[in-house]
Amino acid sequence: MLWKAMPVASAILACMQTARAQAPSDTEAPSGSGLEEVVVTAQKRVENMQNVPISIQAIGTEKLDQMHVTNFDDYAKLLPSVSFQTAGPSFEHTYMRGVASGGDGNHSGSLPSVGMYLDEQPVTTIDGNLNIHIYDIARVEALSGPQGTLYGASSEAGTIRIITNKPDPTGFKAGYDVEGNSVDHGGKGYTVEGFVNMPISSIAAVRLVGWDEKDAGFIDNVPGTVTYVPQGGPPTFTQNNAAQVKKDYNDVETKGGRAALKVDLTDNWTVTPQVMGQSSDTHGFFAYNPKLGDLEVQKYFPEEIHDSWVQSALTIEGKINNFDLVYAGAYLTRNTHENEDYTDYSLAYTAAYTFDSYATYFRDNAGKLINPAQYIVGRDHYTKLSHELRVTSPKEYPVRVTAGLFLQRQVHEILQDYTIPGGPAMNDPLASTGPFNLSVPGWPGTIWLTDEERVDRDAAVFGELSWDITSALTLNAGLRHWRFDNTLQGFYGFNSTYSSHEGIATCFTPFVPFHGAVCQDLNGRSNDTGNSPKINLTYKIDPDHMVYATWSKGFRPGGVNRNGGGKLPPYKPDFLTNYEIGWKTTWLDNSLRWNGAIFDEKWKDFQFAFLGPNALTIINNAGNAEIKGVESEMEWRVANPFTLSASAAYLNAKLTQTYCDAIGNGGTLADCLVPGYEGYAPSGTQLPVTPKFKANLTGRYTIPLPNEFQATLQASETYVGARWPDLRIVDRDAFGEMPSYAVTDLSAELARNSWTATLFVSNAFDKRAILDRTASCGVLQCGTVAIYNTPNVPRMIGLKFGQRF
After folding, report:
1. What is the pLDDT of residues 48-92, one digit of tens each?
2. What angle do CA 477, 481, 486 make, to 5 degrees?
3. How many structural domains comprise the chain?
4. How is 418-483 classified by DSSP, letter by letter?
5. So what's the pLDDT on residue 21?
């Protein structure tokens, strides 16, 4: 494996052995009192951010290090237009500008509305982001609003790009960082990281990066007992979690590496192959049950996730005459293996049904009753193959063109085994532990099996044209013609002896095995074509002040509804139309930068997922919504030693049409108005997940000291407003609103020449923020058992030492 071939120790050893002379630190402050130029590639050409007429935030290498950013959660809090749902590392579902319905994330459901890129290649996956470790990264770019023209289907609401540092043949560079930390109410963690850039010749270089990280746990799995009492009477079954009790049991261990080679074939042609891989082992559960106590939970089966991925990428850059030609291709493979406790579901459904209709089914082959507790064993295999070929005219031309072709095929092989391990009932010590009599054929002990293959195919032709009407006025117009073709096939459901609605009883005849399943009961397809347009008008008031107006449109592909064996119709694409006015300005002799945008976005036929029969996800095109907002970013070098930076977003995201899922399934609005009906939200309801207001403020003060020492003090505050976890009114009443929170981070840094030592305190006042709120199944069923709060990390105190060569 890549991360075994390139251990961190090798990178650090190479740093120490190969260093010839000390080079300036990568985090050296700019000379003079002005701000550094921020270079981005958001429009697929290298540009000064202040000349790019879109709403974009860029967090560069220096700031990523200063803010102690190591993962998605760390940089997401610095991006006010970004919100997310999370069940733990690598399972974040990302949203921008309030374009969120709160129902995404199911493996058989909607594609994301925010595109994630690693360099030139898309790494967006359906079941959560790649939680890419942030180290030796050039910058993180966040592009707000539809980016459908250049970035396509998964960039309906925005795009996040992680740009790595590339090999550099001009000279040797290397560095390492070592960190130890301790979490209040939790355990201890560490990080070891290193990189080396080694010229091979005057035209070639290799860059190696490695990391080894442990995140401390802070959730306690406390002792508990559950008793299953079906409606209609005895017997009861009792289970304890003694084997799983553990303090600080939600720790994460991550190892990874990156290797890149850059070869300048000629003055005009460069080839850059790169391989990056990461493996993480996540233990425990990342939410707590407030009914039990702060940071406490009761889980009865092991909970753990092994997530490993490798992306191989190739970028070829060259010139034909004065035109730039770029090919970017990549192949991503990802494997996850998950064990998940499903006790809450078991309790809820045991209590909801009579003894005769539910519990008596759970017997072994000897006819003895067994414990109905369930857990899930999940295995997922993702592959993504993408190709992009584009040509760009010289930036000096008064009429400039970027045009290209894009192809992508992503496959998700889904296996979820809902297992009832059985065991003797506490009131019947003679009960057998033999095979479960209702198992899915070929899967002993499995009450429900999901064995599916999902394939999402995308193809597009795109182009943008920019015309300098005058020296100050530029018109930009773009269009992407897209096509998607998505399929979902396989098996899901029960044995026919348990249910006649889902599974074996509904399989196609004659039976044909599918992967590990005995037959197939699902084979659906959804495809469509369309266009994503964009028109932008930019006016340069002077070299330091620019305003722009944009009309753009993004889309998200439709897909297959698996519920009922694919008998429900496919859900259609949804569309986001954006009207935006923005500004990019620099003031006070380049010591103050202030950018912002005001926008109105109309979300048409948005996709909403909810639980239908047998807790299966159904996706409807729910209706329309509108998001009005303003976002702004400021950086001010008040004096040479003191810098202030701030960013904020205010969003008013509401339904503009009453939502009623009964209507989409043959019902009427009157059905929604029945007291206690779950699938209803009136027009004007605030969209979930995203707060109305999110902001951050950072102050950084540098103090020169004798003998070339330099000290820096930094304080940062992040505020996130209240949010609703769900769109529907009944669910909101059950869940409650997630309260607003403010978190303070502090650090003190001492540097001299090539080395830096930093003492930092994250979440300095130990505020318990609620990042997400969930239940194991429908809130009207499982919510009565347990509602879980996903918290931020409690106060963390850490010491970090780094050196550059």
Report:
1. 999 999 999 999 999 999 999 999 999 999 999 999 888 777 778
2. 145
3. 1
4. EE----B-TT-TT-----BTTPPTT-TTEEEEEEEEEEEEEEEEEEEEEEESSSSEEEEEEEEEEE
5. 35
CB 392 within 8 A of CB 383: no
What is the overall mean pLDDT for the chain? 88
Which residue in 300, 259, 257 sits closest to 279, CA to CA? 257
Asked if residue 371 has pLDDT above 50, the reply is yes
Residue type, 791: P
In 342-445, the DSSP E strands lie at 375-392, 399-419
- Neighbour tally for 676: CB within 10 Å: 6
**584 close to 550: Cβ distance less than 8 angstroms:** no
Structure tokens at 430: 């003679």
Domain, as residue range, for 77: 2-657+690-723+738-804
Distance (Å, whole) CA 546 – CA 474: 11
Instruction: Give the DSSP per-residue string, 137-165.
Output: EEEEEEEES--HHHH-GGGSSEEEEEEEP
The share of the chain scoring above pLDDT 70, in percent, equals: 88
Q: Is residue 673, in this structure, part of any structural domain at all?
A: no
Residue 792 one-letter amino acid: N
Q: What is the pTM of this model?
A: 0.91
In a domain, 99, yes or no: yes
pLDDT value, residue 2: 36
Which residue has 């982001």 as its token pair?
129
Indicate which CATH number applies to the domain containing 748: 2.40.170.20
- Give residues with Cβ within 8 angstroms of 590, minimum separation 6: 34, 35, 544
In whole angstroms, give the CA distance from residue 138 to residue 164.
5
Cβ neighbours of residue 567 under 8 Å, at least 6 residues apart?
A: none
Contact 226, 239 (CB under 8 A): yes
Q: What does the alpha-carbon distance between residue 763 and residue 218 come to, in Å, rounded to a whole number?
A: 14
What is the rounded CA–CA span in Å between residue 297 and residue 732?
22
Residue 30 has pLDDT above 80, yes or no: no
Tokens 């932008």 sit at which residue?
A: 536
Distance CA 166, CA 172 (A): 13
Q: What is the 3-state secondary structure (H, E, C) of 476-536?
A: EEEEEEEEEEEEEEEEEEECCCCCCCCEHHHCCCCCCCECCECCCCEEEEEEEEEEEEEEE
Residue 331: other Cβ atoms inside 10 A: 14
Beta bridge partners of 288: 789
Q: What tokens appear for 117 in the block? A: 């890129």
Q: In the chain, what percentage of residues exceed pLDDT 90? A: 68
Is 209:258 a contact under the CB 8 Å cutoff?
yes
Cα→Cα distances 574→157, 212, 425, Å: 11, 41, 50
Q: Which of 273, 216, 261, 258 is CA-nearest to residue 7?
A: 258
Burial of 788 (0-12, 13-18, 19+ CB in 10 A): buried
Phi-psi domain of 566 (left: phi exceeds 0; alpha: psi -120 through 50; beta: other): left
Cα separation, 55 vs 595, whole angstroms: 8
Contact between 576 and 603 under an 8 Å Cβ cutoff? The reply is yes
pLDDT tier for residue 358 given thresholds of 50, 70 and 90: low
pLDDT value of position 231: 63
Average pLDDT for residues 511-516, to the nearest whole number?
93
Residues 21, 24: Cα–Cα separation, whole Å:
10
Other C-beta atoms closer than 10 Å to the C-beta of 243 total 9
* Pairwise CA distance, residues 370 & 422, whole Å: 5
The pLDDT tens digits for 393-440 are 998 899 999 999 999 999 999 999 998 876 544 333 434 444 566 789
662 found inside a domain: no
The band of 567, judged by pLDDT with boundaries at 50, 70 and 90, is low
Main-chain dihedrals φ then ψ at residue 252, nearest 5 degrees: -135, 135
Token code pair at residue 802? 């780094």
pLDDT, tens digit, 9 for 90 and up, residues 778-792: 666 666 668 899 999
Does 731 map to a domain? no
User: Which residues, including other chains, have CB under 8 Å from residue 298's CB and lie 6 or more apart?
Assistant: 221, 222, 223, 224, 226, 241, 289, 292
